Amino acid sequence: MQRLILPLPGNEALATRLAAQCGGELGAVETRRFPDGESYVRLHGDPRGRVVDIVCTLARPDPGFLSLVFAADAARDLGAAEVNLVAPYLAYMRQDKRFQPGESISSLSFARVISSTFDRLVTVDPHLHRHPALAALYAIPTATLHAAPYLADWIAANVADPLIIGPDEESEQWAGSIAARIGAPHVVLRKTRHGDRQVDIEAPDLARWRDRTPVLVDDIASSGRTLVAAGAKLAGMRPPQCVIVHAVFAEDAWEQVSSCFERVVSTDTVPHASNRIELTPLLADAILRDLRD
Description:
Strand content: 25-35%
Number of strands: 16
Number of helices: 8
Low-confidence stretches: none
Shape: globular
Radius of gyration: 20 Å
Helix content: 25-40%
Mean pLDDT: 92
Largest sheet: 6 strands, parallel
């Protein structure tokens, strides 16, 4: 039976492309607020006996999260055979331990809610820190997809003589895989974080790469402080480029980051003006096969 793909508001463009590639029916989720602020949710599309994929990137999740849960419950109540979450960007991954007494470990709490609401989860490059895989948090089958090959292919097609640069030691393997795919050299910077908004970056001697175009690659641009600090270390080289997976860009981050680079490009996991790299084929493949971490 044809699967039903339901986008939460703001996710319609991605869901439309997914429905076309998966041969699914594109439905809709209607949401609004009652006068007292409570959420109203209505599904457009019949879930009975069907696999339902709810599409909702979870950048800035709090305002619409109840609508997401209500939509999933409605699909199940209306007879869906399976209700999956396609969340290209997965929120609440940063607080993965109790750093201060009394803190909520929100990554675990969020995972419990998602696991109790959906049957499966598909996401792209979740920001894992102390957990080796999503299976350590989530009690449902998950598909962890990787955008690095798509970033690499975009760089190869659009940047002459690239030098791939990772912003910190944690990015060594990731930046290295991008560089290896396109036969480019890579270097890794060293980052020291002093809080949510303050970082220091140390760079190796880049003089030998002055004939190369520096391309800073990162998984998430949120506050943008890491990218700005890294960009400042590339003075004297060709105009630097920046290629990222998740274009969250909180507050004034976009203005800060875009002023430091000749070009800033992202995938479409979070709708943003910088989106140039489409991940629909990656997501569609995961939706149509058995999900596994």
